[in-house]
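Retro notes - structure team

What went well: the batch runner handled both jobs without manual restarts.
What didn't: labels got mixed up in the shared folder, which is why I'm recording both outputs here explicitly, each with its sequence directly above its tokens.

Job 1
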Amino acid sequence: MSIPSSLLASESITFEGAIELTQSLLAKIEADSLRDSYASQLSEAQIEQAVASLVKTMNGARGFFVTYLTDEGQVADRPSPGAIEALRSAPEIVAELLVKNLAMSSAMVVYHSRHQSEERAAGSARVQGRSRNLIQILQMPACQTIASEMLANLQDASGEYQEFFERWGYDDEQKMAIRSAVSEAIG
């Protein structure tokens, strides 16, 4: 059974297009989880093909992760074998975005908690947990490398990720939360 072309990302997909495509994909996967396995619309191979088409470009991967990690449903809480294999198909892009999503969501838990925005803090904590879970499931050397570089940059206040920390204006408490989450994710 071939995958509908509407679920495949083109090389020129926009960030917004990737968000829409991921929303459609997640809706189909969620609907499948409510059916019996014989009535599923998508096989694991089709899920893998759809996700791989998204994560092979930076726009596609960014749109995929912003949607997948923040989705209100539970698909991302139990990543399918097809999704996992697809993420492994683009280690450089996936690792960079996963480690950054872990860092950003960890900092945002602190920010939202400070501002008594418990609903937003819970949303950031959900992204944090899903990002950590994916990093641990994937066990990609690229995640280990990027996480180690990020931790070293936090220690030395210099390096490739220092600009990332400065751009987002993370303070010491947020950096401590990032350090803790990234360390935990890579063991």
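Job 2
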Amino acid sequence: MTATTVPSVPTVLTARALLLDMDGTLVNSDAVVERIWRRWAERHGLDGDEVMKVVHGRQGYASMAVLLPDRPMEQNLADNARMLAEETADMEGVVAIPGAAAFLASLQGLPHALVTSADVPLSTARMAAAGLALPDVRVTAESVGASKPDPEGFLKGAAELGVAPADCLVFEDSGAGIAAGRAAGMRVVGVGSRASVHRPDVLVGDLAGVRVEAVGGGEIRVSFG
């Protein structure tokens, strides 16, 4: 897939910081997510296909709250802890999104942060399994009180970097993540087919065609295609 945009939006954008989701954006973890969430759906008598429409981008407890709205949150949190342990122990099929390693390398010395719904153990394990270096600044599940689509994670990432939200560019694959970026007042680059239905500012199939360069005055130029 080549870079595409909504009408009148250029395929070169400038920003002062980049905020990066992990799953589906830097790391392809779909195989393990499918395995674990479909098992969970079966245990709870839910349709696996419908469950998979909900879970991408959110923390597990937040997905459970959508799927089992009458269940006490305490049960969701306990279930989420078990699910995180399962996911952290299962790295089979976890690989880098094409172009992710070079993309991260090009960000060295530039303001950027990982903003993920995974916790520290899971994000560390998945990035390592994919052979990717962790950014120095990371906003994980432990860092926030609300899951995407709440903008808290992206706003915290911007604050950690000392950059105004409007000057940040978000890279995301999921509907929940794209909604969170927009709610934070940021422009969003959608990565992969999941992002295509959520009208990001720019859509790319992967990171192989994304080019990043510092252009002076604290600005970062991001080119697509």
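One thing worth noting from job 2: Confidence is low (pLDDT under 50) at residues 5-9.
We'll revisit the folder naming next retro.
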